[in-house]
Amino acid sequence: MLAVQGLSRRFGGLHAVADVSFTVPVGQTLGIIGPNGAGKSTLINLVTGHLRPSAGRVEVAGQDLTGARPWTVAKAGVARTFQIVKPFRGMTVRENVAIGLLYGRQGMRRMTAALTAADEVLDRVGLAGKAAATPGELTITDARRLEFAKALALRPRLLLLDEVMAGLRHTEIDPSLELIHRLKAEGMTIIAVEHVMKAILSISDRVLVLHQGRVLTDGAPRDVLSDPRVIEAYLGHRYARREQ
Amino acid sequence: MTSERGEAAAVPGLTRRADAGRDEVPDGGAARHGGKAPPSAASTRSPVTQRAWLPWAVGGLVLAACFGLQSQLYAGQERTVATVFMFVGLAQAWNLIGGYTGYACFGQVVFFGLGGYTTAALMAHAHVSFWLALPASGLLAAIWAALIGLPLLPLKGHYFAVATLGVAEGTREVVTNLPSLTGGGAGISIPTVGADATTGYLGNDGFYVLFLLLAAVSVLVVAIVSASKLGFALRAINQDEDAAASLGVHTTRTKVSVFALSGFLTGLLGAAYGFQQVTIFPARLFDVNFTVLMVIMVIIGGSGTVVGPVIGAAFLQFVSEYLRQHFTEAHPFILGAIVIVAVILLPQGVVSYAGSAWRNRDFSLLDNIRKYRL
Hints:
The complex is a heterodimer of chains A (244) and B (374). Chain A is globular, with a radius of gyration of 18 Å. Chain A has helices at residues 40-48, 70-75, 93-103, 111-125, 140-152, 170-185, 197-203, 221-226, 228-243, and strands at 2-11, 14-24, 29-33, 55-60, 63-64, 78-80, 158-162, 189-193, 206-211, 214-219. Chain A has 244 residues and is of the alpha/beta class. In chain A, the strands form 2 sheets. A 6-stranded mixed sheet of chain A has the order 6-7-8-3-9-10, sandwiched between helices. Chain A has a 4-stranded antiparallel sheet with strand order 2-1-4-5, with helices on one face. By secondary structure, chain B is mainly α. Helices cover 75% and strands 1% of the residues of chain B. Chain A binds chain B through residues 48-50, 69-71, 73-75, 79-80, 82, 86-92, 95, 98-100, 102-105, 107, 109, 111-112, 114-115, 132, 134, 136-137, 139-140, 150, 153-154, 167-169, 172, and chain B through 2-3, 5-6, 9, 19, 22-27, 30, 38-39, 41, 44-45, 48-49, 227-229, 232-233, 235-236, 238-240, 242-252, 304.
């Protein structure tokens, strides 16, 4: 589904992402972890077109999307969530979701049809009762759900989740996990950047570790997390002890 | 912020208050940063279909009333009302780019001036009928908007405002320095009588109808855009451009097209104004005051709404005219004071205030000020 070849991005002298290559087959969920500043968000932004790569190649389902603008990437079926939720605050929840239906891969033309279809998407993420609310009235959990709904409105083939669990408490994580598992069951290809290990272990088929912009290791979640290099360098001794 | 919300959720009493506060904060934030008020919640909250004909019916009635009003006015009053119509059109044009899209253009007068000069040059030099010069003026203004929009619309906030201001001043200088085409600083006259006249002067009655129709077209365009898919994209860009782009909105194309549309409407009004004035000068047609008035009218009325700029333009223009006649000396001073008070009391504009006041059954202006933390 996604093939990334030698992707690099420099900010001045800093190699935020350096020569990163990996592929994600259809239906797989790839977890990306790494310490702060490892280049995880930059990598997501390079794939979604919010940043242009200095070098390398991005391909989605055989379509070359290197350096494509965000709307082109969205229309190609790649949806993303943002680390900080980005609702349209002056619109209702329903209207927030309608945007993706109107302008995404489906490209609906009629407002009324898009608003009706938005209700179906909201139902999928468990926000059906909040369709007429404004984003400011939502709880933090519901705000995350809205972020999911907006992404799903694009009818994506590939879903990029940028720290969707950040700032959630343990009990608040479960609904999001359940939703991701449901999407996995439907065959969605997912890339999840995440700090919450419980989440990574729960959803990932495979984990890739970034460090200083480079791929450190890439493999099955348990193997990667027990890799001494990963524990020492990125997760620190405290996490290593807790795991044992 | 995250943990705050989490804690508030644990205490029922707190939750309600936190929610009430949060509801208004984004609006306040938007309004304080250059009048980027969101669309009135009244129009976005209600279901789309119910009583959708009502605004159109009211609009039609107002239009018919304006036609009927004409015969009841003295010549001076007719001119005043025609000017109000012109400003309704101008405010609506600015509303598209500044209100809906959130790009405060401080050089909007450039399209007005270009429209006036295109019409003057076409009628004086090329002997073209006004009715051909009018659309040509709009078109040229639209092309200029698209050309300057491509490099300027990636700029945000103050940078866009300052850059467009610079373009307007620069364009005025260019027009001033092309005397063979524009008459330079001495101005250019449109032949309105005799053999040279391509279209006879329309007179008070004619310009009243012309400005009324142009205002009606502007309101209609904004109403259609507002209810359409495009209007949604504009609001999305206004509220979060990155999120809009990641949901498939081609932000560059959308912004440039709406800027061109805004320029087109402004150009039409400039053409009509130029013809009405007969002799035009760069200092007058490119006067920055036109831009300032458009901005104030939209903000007072309610930016990003269909009705707001109409109310803002009518209010400001009538008050200004009244003060000019009754307080010749102190007129600018009093008008300035009124604008300041209006913006302090109603930072989100009359229409948005009325909408939220009606919903919350809270008509206190003090509460309104507090809500926007001014």
